[in-house]
Amino acid sequence: MFRKILIANRGEIACRVIKTARKMGIATVAVYSDADRNALHVRMADEAIHIGPAPANQSYIVIDKIMDAIRQSGAEAVHPGYGFLSENMKFAEALAAEGVAFIGPPANAIEAMGDKITSKKLAQEAGVSTVPGYMGLISDAEDAVKISNQVGYPVMIKASAGGGGKGMRIAWNDDEAREGFQSSKNEAASSFGDDRIFIEKFVTQPRHIEIQVLADSHGNTVYLHERECSIQRRNQKVIEEAPSPFLDEATRRAMGEQACALAAAVGYTSAGTVEFIVDGDRNFYFLEMNTRLQVEHPVTELITGVDLVEQMIRVAAGEKLPFAQSDLKINGWAIESRLYAEDPYRNFLPSIGRLTRYRPPTELVEPSRAVRNDTGVFEGGEISMYYDPMIAKLCTWAPTRGQAIDEMRLALDEFELEGIGHNLPFLSAVMDHPRFVSGDITTAFIAEEYPDGFEGATLAPDLLRRVAASACAMNRVAEIRRARISGRMDNHERVVGSDWVVTIQGERLQASIDADRDGATVTLDGQAYRIASDWLPGQPLARLTVNGTPLVMKIDKIPGGFRARLRGADLKVHVFSPRQAALAELMPEKLPPDTSKLLLCPMPGMVVSIAVEEGQEVYEGQALATVEAMKMENILRAERKGTVSRISVQAGASLAVDDIIMEFE
């Protein structure tokens, strides 16, 4: 077995590999850029080596710099994680030439299956059903339009070396094909150093289901069942689960056997994933093979009990797989929520900055439930503009899908994260969505259910009243503390009453409260709620039970009540005395400023281009500017017809959130 391995990656996957290596007694070496000097993976590793400036194309994807780090450290093997050099054949060849083990597949397998164009051709030759498309290289935007018309709209424009949703666009017409081709090409060059693009038919209403395979160098190949990855936004997976709620046993077996056959055909070893599109009749079509560890591998580990990173290391060391296909059963259900530094209230645009508070839920493994959080950040750390915006992968496991969803709801509500925009509210809202709960999902789920973006969840009436009752009980605790303040004037004693008025989500509820040593009973419009909690004023997280059912809320004090965040909702809950409630009714509403004639930068980033001029008339949907953030190009479009009166920035400018880009008449 190896004595020392180098992890040619960063963030949560580097931390994940370090954990398994530590468990196996293997020393680890981290590499880091200028931006990652104080990163968590650097702190966790036994040693760390600096490899260059912050941009990945000057550090993490420069093979010579990784090779220098290997020589400095004396590492015997390298785990590439995912992204960066994980599917780079030249990197695998460089390691082989140096006599260093690559904890991944052979270079020829990477060449055969890691390239999307080549893998599709090989799959077709092997008789595997594939999605119609054009596998040749595309020279320019007009060529992309011509091919798109031949294939038939809608089409998917994809980077051959792509992954993680980067370098991918859906085009429904010629204009979108032109724009999508150029953006995909730019993103591919920036992220992967390879700007080759191909086009395939976009299958509407599909499910994205993938098979995890594992193979050793002794001829053994197994599949570890499937993962449902249909909840996606801009082709980037957001929520994954294992197994799929859609597959039956016959389809699962057929997909698994086909995935293994494809892996064996190219002499594959190590962990890999074969991705399929599955239609409503459970017909499946080969999409691509990822010759690396997937981001969503934890859900497979939770339902099989197999540590995939450990098996990758053992396979690279020449060991045989310790199990056969018949040994790999499905145990329970696992769900993964990807926590991104993306603001759902600003159309999921990237957000960067310092994590002023980062308190994940407690990880645990019990017979009836499990909570796992794979992360690469810490409280006080910064989310950089140079890398992928993923903060953590929160996973839950339980014996059934419904129980796993319940555990995820609580875990998301317990996750404390402040300082940046993030998608926790959106993840929570999906967990409550009827279509997700029923398992009736496709890759179009987010586009169909949130066509105008995410504006927060509206809580069901019963849950809303549970929150209102809890706020009333919490307000009583705070009022008692305020009534006991020292230094009061003589003959002035404050009495905490039992009658209150609660306003929440546009509702006004009459409340009365009766407290005892064990909690409080709050009656709202005749309905009684028994509240138990050890919450104290000032604590940002409130864990309560309401009529015996757990309830978790993030709490901030506001004048006259609380800001409560849970289940995707961000609520202002006011608890007034009857007199205060009457006076509050007379207060005027404060209106936000009018920004309708301004184009504001929706996220921190750099201006790539300005597509219009001062004095130009623009129309609804017309491209105005392109801003790059987190390695993704974002095209900002006109919301309505108008005339540009002033342009405040030019290409190359770095902007903060809400900086003015242009003004309109």
Please write out the topology.
Layout: E1 4-7, H1 11-23, E2 27-33, H2 40-44, E3 47-52, H3 63-73, E4 77-79, H4 89-98, E5 101-102, H5 107-114, H6 116-125, E6 133-134, H7 141-151, E7 155-163, E8 166-171, H8 174-192, E9 197-201, E10 207-215, E11 221-233, E12 236-242, H9 249-265, E13 270-278, E14 284-290, H10 297-304, H11 308-316, E15 333-340, E16 342-343, E17 349-350, E18 353-354, E19 357-359, E20 364-366, E21 369-375, E22 382-383, E23 390-398, H12 401-414, E24 416-418, H13 424-432, H14 434-438, H15 445-449, H16 461-483, E25 499-504, E26 507-516, E27 519-524, E28 527-533, E29 541-546, E30 549-558, E31 561-566, E32 569-576, H17 578-584, E33 598-600, E34 605-610, E35 617-618, E36 623-629, E37 632-637, E38 642-647, E39 654-655, E40 660-664
Parallel strand pairs: 1-2, 1-4, 2-3, 4-5
Antiparallel strand pairs: 6-9, 7-8, 7-9, 10-11, 10-13, 11-12, 12-15, 13-14, 15-23, 16-17, 18-22, 19-24, 20-21, 21-23, 25-26, 25-32, 26-27, 27-28, 28-29, 29-30, 30-31, 31-32, 33-40, 34-36, 34-39, 35-38, 36-37, 38-40
Helix pairs in contact: 4-5, 5-6, 7-8, 12-13
